[in-house]
Structures are given as C-alpha cells and as structure tokens.
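Issue: ligand-bound run for norvaline - logging full I/O for the record.

Environment: standard queue, default settings, no custom constraints.

Inputs:
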Amino acid sequence: DALTRPKDLLDFSAYGRQEIEELLALAERLKRERYRGEDLKGKVLALLFEKPSLRTRTTLEVAMLHLGGYAIYLDQKQVGIGEREPVRDVAKNLERFVEGIAARVYRHGTVEELARHARIPVINALSDRAHPLQALADLLTLKEAFGGWEGLEVAWVGDGNNVLNSLLEVAPLVGLRMRVATPRGYEPDPGLLQKAGAFLTHDPKEAALGAHALYTDVWTSMGQEAERERRLRDFNGFQVNGELLKLLRPEGIFLHCLPAHYGEETTEEAVHGPRSRVFDQAENRLHTAKAVLLCLLS
Ligand code: CP
Ligand code: NVA
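Outputs:
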C-alpha cells in the first residue's frame, strides 16, 4: 500500500485525516489477518526508555518480531541519555546502527531533539506531553465498539495529561467529540482543547452523561511522584467507578490506557466490569504498533 510517510511519530502535528485513516485501516487488516511477515527483515528498532513500561515495550518488541525485524531494549541506566552523553550524540550513534528509535522520555524536548539529529524515524513511546501510540490503539478500540468515529462522544475524566493531549490532537481528524472533566489547574493543553472543539467542565458527571465512552488515566503520571499527595486531594471526586459509568448511554464503554492505580482514578469493578474495553485497548497497542512500524520503517 502507498502510505503517506512523515519521518517520525512524535505527536500528530505532521499527520492529517488521511494518514490516520490509512494507519488505522492497516492496523485493522493486520489484526484481522493475524499478520506475520518479513517486511522488516534485517531491520532493528532501538527502544530507548527512561521510564518503565509493560504495554509499549512489549508491543513494539513483538511487533518487530512479527514483521521479521528485531528490537533491542536500551535501559536509561546503561545509556544515560542526556547524562552519560548528550541527546544529539545518542541520535548520531544510533542512526549508524539501527533503522528506527522508539523513545520513552520525561521531557518531550528529548524526542524532538532525537528526531532532529537522527536521520532515522523516531517514535514517541510516551513523553510528558504526548502518547500517540496509545491514541492510535484507542481509535481502533472505538471503531471496533461503534463501527466508526464520526460524532462519537468521548468523555475524559481525570488529569489533563499526555494521554489526553494525544486524544485531543487526533479527535478532530476523525470526528470524535471530546468532553473533558478535570479538576481546576489540571486542564490539558489549551491549544489542543480548542482545536478539538472540546467541551471542558470540572464536573465528571456532566462529561460522562450520555457519552459513548468514558476514559480515564492515573492521577499521578510517571515523573510526578513527588506531587502524589497533593494530587490525591485535588482529584477527590474524579474516580471513574461503577456509579459514574451508569451515566453513559446503554452501549457506552470504559477505556483506560493502563497501568491502573486502583482505588484512585478507577476501581477493579470498572476495569474488569461489563463495560470495560480496557484489555481490547491493550491488545490493540500491538496491531497499531505494527501499522506504525510498517509505515515508518519500510
Ligand atoms: N499504556 C501504556 O503505555 O502502558 P505502559 O506504560 O505499560 O507501556
Ligand atoms: N499518563 C501516564 C500514562 C502511562 C501509560 C504516565 O505518563 O505515566
């Protein structure tokens, strides 16, 4: 397939409706066909992770394997990106060794700097500002649940974080209508909120009422551990539990990117309950990762 290919996936700013629809169509096909192939034979993806991961690391590694390529995991303790050596030097070494970099970083500026200095594709595997791989899996999950995206009302209850920013960025490209409920002071990027035409409230019930999907994520993201006590206080009343899920439309679903902090932003009842599509979301990380890797590394 002739896919449009921006060099990197840092966020969705270089992506339009067509690129997103092509990526998702490819992911759907790969999933349907349980695709295994040799498309990336001999190609190596470096996983440069400053933070822990279950889903992102595993799905990228398995995706590379299913496509005939290979992945190497580079622990921050070993590489010391920005510490043992500058980001630019890491980029200018890795481009000589491997065909792509997936980086999970604290500062979004680090993935931007890697992409600027490496001639190979750089994939944002989560930064403080964005989590584009997650948003692609979320789109696939929504499509499977509702048959399409146009006009779906997606409520976000919780922190205005990286995961929300990426959803807001992609929402207007596919016609999702976002309703966002955060505590005061925890709103997402205002530019993305505005571009998405999102509805902003500080009342979780108002966001959830009649929505097709209700999405939440941890109140304390990786790197924010020092703020945990304050956040626990500030997010009081924002838990997505069985009660809040009752406000969705009858066919409404619950989404969470995982990992979950049970007893904080959500409950076991919600994650393991009948409305949950959380583990489909997790599975879809694999299929959408494959689509991204085929698109950027082929
Ligand atoms: N959802 C997600 O990115 O999970 P990990 O942090 O385990 O990769
Ligand atoms: N917002 C969370 C997402 C984890 C996948 C974090 O950044 O830690």
